[in-house]
Input
Amino acid sequence: MNDQANSVDERYEAAAPAELSSWNRHDTTWMLGLFGTAIGAGTLFLPINAGLGGFWPLVVLALLAFPMTFFAHRGLTRFVLSGREGADITEVVEQHFGIKAGALITLLYFFAIFPILLIYSVGLTNTVASFLEHQLHITPPPRVLLSFVLILGLLAVVRCGEQAIVKAMSLMVYPFIVALLFLAVYLIPHWNGGILTTVSQVPAPSALLHTLWLAIPVMVFSFNHSPIISAFAVDQKRRYGANAQQRSSQILCRAHLLMVVMVLFFVFSCVLTLSPEQLAEAKAQNLSILSYLANHFSNPTIAFAAPLIAFVAISKSFLGHYIGASEGLKGLIVKSGQRPGAKALDRIVAAFMLVVCWIVATLNPSILGMIETIGGPVIAAILFLMPMYAIRKVPAMARYRGQASNVFVTAVGLVAISALIYSLTA
Output
């Protein structure tokens, strides 16, 4: 019997590389989960930020979008895969750089992601309250009750487990893709040249570089899905073993192609419809592109579609960022010397998330700009610079040395951090 079982195991192991060549539902689910984490509320502000610089900077940003996002997230995935079996990003940092560095990165990782979760809690409550009041003409319930119900509903999905989160996000991606396509196509008859009026205005090299310098962080963080990369890498290693790096790169490549094509079509459709002056007006009013378009066209279809799309976008991103935030918080609790059981730890983390997100959503603070400037440099350091440093220093990642993409990722990371620090101090 044992010999028979061993022969079955040997056949299974021999077949593993062949199975890698065939794409499966699990891979599609992760591809859409990565898309769902990255493409969220930030996408709805990207046309404003990316289009303000004029035509040529936008073209350069469009060309840089795929390599910026793919190489950076692939590097972080490789970093997590370089650790021992089942180790998440905080454990891999500790394994490679020591206990003190592991504790520091865990702290930074948590405080880079958790504030974004708070923003989504506020944004979700505002979106639903506005939809009830202005589109359905229903008086929304008290904010303290509405925020509690919404966050509790999302945490109910979380309680079903990581795979349930990824599946829920992948399902929510479909209506979001359809909605983005609908809006982009809907705007085509309204294209009036928009940003094309600036084609003849070729900026001086110094002005172009300055514009790109300040715009790159917007592009980077509009496509950021680093909070879910650790869980993604752990799952790939558990499923594919030695082939995890190859398959995860395939999934990341397809996810980023989907992101870039979809988002850039939406961005160009918006900037071909609105003039640079109108984009500046939207930024001054602190509105997403959907809200500005709804006001611009006074169209009931857009008025109804905009908040629904925003709801899906924010919910997707909330779930994806929850994975990263909870992972960081669990790491902090364990590194503090506390050793609760797995179920008790999950309950503690969920209760903390619920209470803090509920309080912040109820108070409705205006913290978006502050969080972006504080969390941005930390995310850039973790996503761009830490994996590249590990490639240089960690023996387990030595095989990735000497690649041109490493120089590119390092340069973009330094540009993103320096531009965000400049924006904070200017």
Observations:
- The first helix runs from residue 2 to 20.
